[in-house]
Amino acid sequence: MSEGEQQGGERKGNYALEQLKQVRATRGAGTPAQIERSRRGKEMQNLILRAIADEAKTVPEISAETGLPEQDVFWWITALRKYNRVQDEKKRGDFVPYRKK
Amino acid sequence: MAASTQQLKADVLVVGAGIAGLQASLDLADQGKSVVLVERKPSIGGTMINLSKVFPTLDCASCITTPRMASVAHHANIDLFTLSEVDGIEKAEGRFRATITKRPRYIEEDRCIGCKRCEEACTVFLEDDFDHGLGAKKAISIPFTNAIPQYPVLDAENCLLCGACAKVCPTQCINFLQEPKQVEVDAGAVILATGFELTPIDAKPQYGRGGFPNVLSPLQMERLLAPHGPYGGVMRPSDGQTPSSIAYVQCAGSRDKSLGVPYCSRVCCMYAIKQAMLLSGSLPIADITIYYMDIRAFGKGYEQFYQNARAMGVEFVKAKVARISEDEGHNPILRIERQEAGTGPEEVRHDLVVLSLGMVPAWKPSQGGLIAVEADTDGFLKSPGMKLSPALTTMDGVFAAGTATGPKDIVDAITDAGAAAMAATNYLARTQPAPARHLP
Amino acid sequence: MTETNTSALEPSGDPVRVGVYVCHCGGNISDVIDTKAVAAALAAHPNVAVSNDYMFMCSDPGQALIIDDIKANHINRVVVAACSPTLHEITFRKALQRAGLNPYLFEYVNIREQASWVHKGDHEGATRKAVRLVAAGVEKVVRQDELFPIKVGVEPHVVVVGGGVAGMSAAVALAGRGLGVTLVEKGVALGGRVADLDRVYPTEERGADLVQDLTRQVEGHSRIDVRLGSEVVGLDGHVGKFAVTVRTSSAAPDDQDHLVRAGAVVIATGFDHYKPAQGEHGFGESPAVVTLPDFQAALRQCPASRRGLQVNGRPARSVAFIHCVGSRQIDGVHAPQADGKVNDYCSRTCCTATLHTIRQVQSRFPDVDVYDLHKDIRTYGRGHEAYYEDASRAGALFFRFPDEEPPTFAASTGGEYAGTVTTRDILTWGEELEIPVDLVVLATGMVPRDIASLIDLRKLPVGADRFLQEVHPKLRPVETGVAGILLAGACQGPMDINEACTAAQTAAVKAAILLANPTIELDPFVAVVDGERCDGCGKCLAECEYVGALTMADVEQAGATVRHAVVNPAMCVGCGACAAVCSPRAINVAGWTLDQFDAMVDAIIAEDVGALAHTECRAGVRHIEFAVISGGN
Ligand SMILES: Cc1cc2nc3c(=O)[nH]c(=O)nc-3n(C[C@H](O)[C@H](O)[C@H](O)COP(=O)(O)OP(=O)(O)OC[C@H]3O[C@@H](n4cnc5c(N)ncnc54)[C@H](O)[C@@H]3O)c2cc1C
Ligand SMILES: Cc1cc2nc3c(=O)[nH]c(=O)nc-3n(C[C@H](O)[C@H](O)[C@H](O)COP(=O)(O)OP(=O)(O)OC[C@H]3O[C@@H](n4cnc5c(N)ncnc54)[C@H](O)[C@@H]3O)c2cc1C
Ligand code: SF4
Ligand code: SF4
Questions:
Q1: Residues contacting A81, CB < 8 A, separation 6+
Q2: Is the pLDDT score of B243 beyond 50?
């Protein structure tokens, strides 16, 4: 049995904006720490994506080029790979090179 | 939105939807009993749906768990509540009254079509708990590919309230104002199937307190071995390298009084052997070493499984691992004392190490909440009728199934669930006036 | 007798529209097979209206794809190409049913075990093979009849074979559920092996008390009929309606056999102790070598006196326990058993039973020196590890012998002790040790009881370890391959008491599920006779191996009496032996007709899916429906 309860009904066009206004008013739109984390995340994604835009590279190669720690590079590669922004290439030695999609 | 309380009546309330809770629910519902099944996580399936393949058959875990999950979700006699917490269960006049809080997903389930567009649009990346931090998810995401139910959950703690998801949702089902809902269940009996957790990876200072990237928990290795795992293969979290030497440290967190876990966790020998076999299949040139004191392959077909692993070339070394450290390249270094051909302590370097962590209860009666049953000295639920009536707890009408009463593998958890369902059925027959439908 | 309603082939007018769904199985298939290409190739089949691929067809959204296509796109036949049908056939049939389509208008094509897993290195070949297999599935499903499950009326009664803790536990649970039970025990009393145990680990209760507790519950139940000194000598019928003949040899000659009708049967015949071979660790050659159960009995008998531990009238000042006797045997190291195989399994209970016994020796006779010789110590269960620790703390010495070099015993003549155990010890770096002992206790494992005659009654499945075999070792641990026959306790493999009782109660719940409703539904894949074509030659009858499944009978047809083959759908297993010999093609297995096979073969050898013939509105399927098989044969 499904657990969804019937709510149904038509929604007005900008219901979400209205809701967001209300929630932002009570809770604020993200703490400074969240916003900083998000900014830093975007920065790393961009650095990595730029490094592999034209040529597939392995994690150590991307790390060397961007100056980001290997572990962070790999985590972001995993994330971008899952959401179809990066693809694997044929393995070189012990490492998989990644390329921007 | 006004929070109105939903009222439900059922024969049995089952808490926890791991394989034990799922099987107990099916074994009741297939007899015509009505069941309310409550799971705290957003999807049912428990640990089993998180595994790669299962010993000793090496069946793909997803492939054999999903049918059970789907049968439960579609069963006419089972009402399922996910992302829900049982706040408390009181016994009065032979019945059990449970209050349940259904936490908001911030999407309206009757509108959602599971298209994942919200997840694609969201810009906030988080560590994915299903992949134990190895992979990523978004602040709004469907918990995993074959999650049941297939609804996304919005992580309110990390949502930046940017509204990107709401903009792309074709059915306008995102609801930022959703509130928790209260549900009250009136049940004739209760089954606790609250399951286990791994012993914490950071408990043991000698093993680095979880601070080394290439020292993994066994569930992290399960994910790396899973067909749709976070890396698309087995690699080192520190740098994406394919490891050529992998080691297992047995009893890391069990049979250890200093950790308060003096007992054997029963499954870690077998999952280590299983993972070692899977690794030698996917990384044929890698060396795999298991450091152990006793190999406890006691179940049906398990000894044969162990001997197969030895024949495949997995190396079993009788040794104590005294300490783990790492070098500057994040290569774990094990300080071991061999039992065979012992030449004093030595240090061995591996590319990747898995700690064979043990099991502790996911819910301990000492934590309070839920229900006033007693725990045994090991922290798991007490079984006062252990020998002949293994499903009993210390409260009449409350039964236990699966790893809630101690470490167990899947087959033992499933068998347990059947016994709990039988015990609950017979308890109902004794205590509830309405007889089973047509039976003499 | 049973009637089968087979309606004539009547075109319903709806065109045949097949939906094809190719599953990735999360990479299990799609890493090797180009699933998109398979879906695209099948789209060319003239009867295929929808052809798609998807990550997990078994998931809820995967099933929703099918349901939506049935409802919105008027799909009336479904082919899923995925993993093994044993995993998900029922999942998808139920999905069809939810969408309002007959659940048997479905074909499952296994492209995982039969393509992607076996052709890992050949992506193109595997893809080509998948296309042909799926095309054959489509050809089959367009010729599929609408089928309905066979309904069998049930007897709300269960026969339990074996009155040990497992059998008694199952009986009590079933009776509590309102079912009648016949409990058949070969011996003169209930209790099985537990009756022999003094104290049981880990609760330290008395074995006799446990047995008494269960016996009282069994005897207190009006619904349980206990038959002591009895065996099952006949096991006919089928799930829902077994006819079980129970023979009590001690009864009057004309009153020995008793027929019991039961909906299900639970087997709980338990285990035997492994009997060591002559000379195995000195067994049979010296009175100083005994088995664990014999030692336990001696210990129970031995009075607590100042003379210390006495076994068989001789003092035992130093005792060595050797683990894994008759278990974990290795080809080439151990002599094979009667069937030529070694016992390669672990007996699960003997490690803890040994340490439990060592603790009893230590607490009653603290002066006895105890040596424990093992490969691994497997005190896995709740409360088991404490015996190991306590034994060690109380001074037992543990030695670990190599797998290939089991310890040996040599009796001494005139020495201070009865003999010497020689072993290599891994824990002290492979040193060879000689231990002077008065007694050697062999921790003998479990072997199944000799129940060959019971097994033969129904060809019950037996594993390589000779214990009874379950259907699926993970997911269906108490069911056998014979529907309605369930397993409980140590007849299935080594188990301790609580594990045996848990299994028994699970077997009880499975029986309770089977018998919860007045009828059970069985799969309709059984032989069906086409009365028009049957010429009554009886060739099929000669081929049928299943007693009662097929008979020749006179039936009324178009005003005349003709001789025909008649099938009992509940006894027929759908093997198809009859269909193979029927030249007029009058007898066919429903869902697997010869016409379907012909079409599948044609599809497999066809070069081009698009060139296969379009099947017109054959949706006028035959409705094959069986009447309820009711009480009393
Ligand atoms: C690394 C690893 C590998 C393994 N591999 C295998 C294998 O190959 N083969 C095998 O047989 N076994 C294996 N196991 C063991 C197997 O995972 C367990 O036997 C099985 O998952 C136990 O199922 P369970 O239902 O008892 O518990 P769980 O899977 O833990 O399920 C309990 C459920 O209850 C929920 N819950 C807990 N508390 C509450 C609450 N208060 N309210 C609501 N819900 C709650 C939890 O969220 C969870 O979903 C492995 C274990 C590990 C750690
Ligand atoms: C040395 C030793 C010590 C042990 N100590 C402990 C302990 O301390 N704690 C613990 O938990 N477990 C212990 N065990 C395990 C325990 O003995 C078993 O778990 C238990 O006996 C299993 O019960 P059962 O009913 O499956 O089988 P059994 O006890 O073998 O009972 C089977 C019954 O079936 C009957 N039977 C057999 N064939 C037929 C037939 N064809 N027709 C009719 N009836 C038949 C038999 O007569 C018997 O009564 C020990 C085992 C050993 C070997
Ligand atoms: S199962 Fe093996 S690894 Fe786990 S605690 Fe027991 S002996 Fe140690
Ligand atoms: S339980 Fe212990 S003694 Fe028995 S077979 Fe297994 S390892 Fe050997």
A1: A87, A88, A98, B232
A2: yes
Range of the domain at B346: 199-358
3-state per-residue secondary structure call for chain A: CCCCCCCCCCCCCCHHHHHHHHHHHHHCCCCHHHHHHHHHHHHHHHHHHHHCCCCCECHHHHHHHHCCCHHHHHHHHHHHHHCCCEEECCCECCECCEEEC
Q: Min CA distance, C615 vs chain B (Å)?
A: 33
CA distance B221 to B215: 10
Contact C477 B60 (CB under 8 A): no
Report the chain B residue with the minimal C-alpha distance to residue C82: B63
Classified as helix, coil or strand, B78 is strand
Q: How far apart are CA A48 and CA B225, in angstroms?
A: 26
CB contact under 8 A, B299 and C348: yes
Q: How far is CA B122 from CA A38, B42, B131, in A?
A: 12, 19, 19
| Residues B148 and B159 reside in one and the same domain | yes
Pocket test for ligand 4, best of C378, C403, C444 (most atoms within 8 A of CB): C378
* In the predicted structure, residue C578 carries a pLDDT above the cut 50: yes
- Shortest Cα distance, chain C CAs vs residue B79, angstroms: 16
Secondary structure E strands in B327-424: 332-338, 346-349, 352-355, 359-361, 398-400
B310 phi/psi in degrees, rounded to 5: -65, -40
Q: Do C319 and C231 have their domain in common?
A: no
Distance CA C108, CA C81 (A): 6
> Would you tell me which residues 8-67 of chain A have a C-beta closer than 8 angstroms to some C-beta of chain B?
8, 11, 15-17, 19-20, 22-24, 27, 29-30, 34-35, 38, 41-42, 58-60, 63
Write the CATH number for C578: 3.30.70.20
For residue B390, give the 3-state DSSP assignment.
coil
How confident is the model over C454-475, as pLDDT tens digits?
Answer: 999 988 999 999 999 999 988 8
Number of compact structural domains in chain C: 4
Which residue in B79, B160, B166 is closest to A38 by CB distance?
B160
Instruction: Output the pTM of the full model.
Output: 0.90
B142 lines ligand 1 (CB under 6 A): no
Which site among C80, C110, C380, C384 would you substitute to test the B interface, given the most B Cβ atoms closer than 10 Å to its Cβ? Answer: C380
Ligand 4 atom with minimal separation from the C348 CA: 1
Dist CA C347 CA C327 (whole Å): 6
Cα-trace Rg, chain A: 20
Domain count, chain B: 3
Q: Is the CB of B356 under 6 A from ligand 3?
A: yes
pLDDT at position C469, please? Answer: 96
Q: A-B interface: how many C-beta pairs under 8 angstroms?
A: 122
On whether both C361 and C416 belong to a single domain, the answer is: yes
Within this chain, do residues B28 and B156 fall inside the same structural domain, yes or no? no
Q: For residue C542, give every residue at least 6 positions away whose Cβ sits within 8 Å of its Cβ, in sequence order, or none.
A: C581
**Is C376 touching ligand 4 by the criterion CB < 6 Å?**
yes
| Candidates A11, A30, A70; nearest CB to B160 | A30
Q: Packing angle between helix C60-72 and helix B61-74, nearest 10 degrees?
A: 60
Biggest CA–CA distance in chain B, Å, is 74
Enumerate the residues of chain A whose CB falls inside 8 A of the CB of residue B78. Answer: 1
Q: Do A3 and B81 touch (CB under 8 A)?
A: yes
Position A6 pLDDT exceeds 50: no
pLDDT in tens, C53-88: 998 888 777 899 999 999 999 999 999 999 888 778
pLDDT, tens only, B96-128: 999 999 999 999 988 887 778 899 999 999 999
Query: Is C7:C608 a contact under the CB 8 Å cutoff?
Result: no
| Cβ partners under 8 Å of residue C206, min gap 6 | C197, C198, C199, C200
Looking at the fold, whether B209 and B231 belong to one and the same domain comes out as: yes
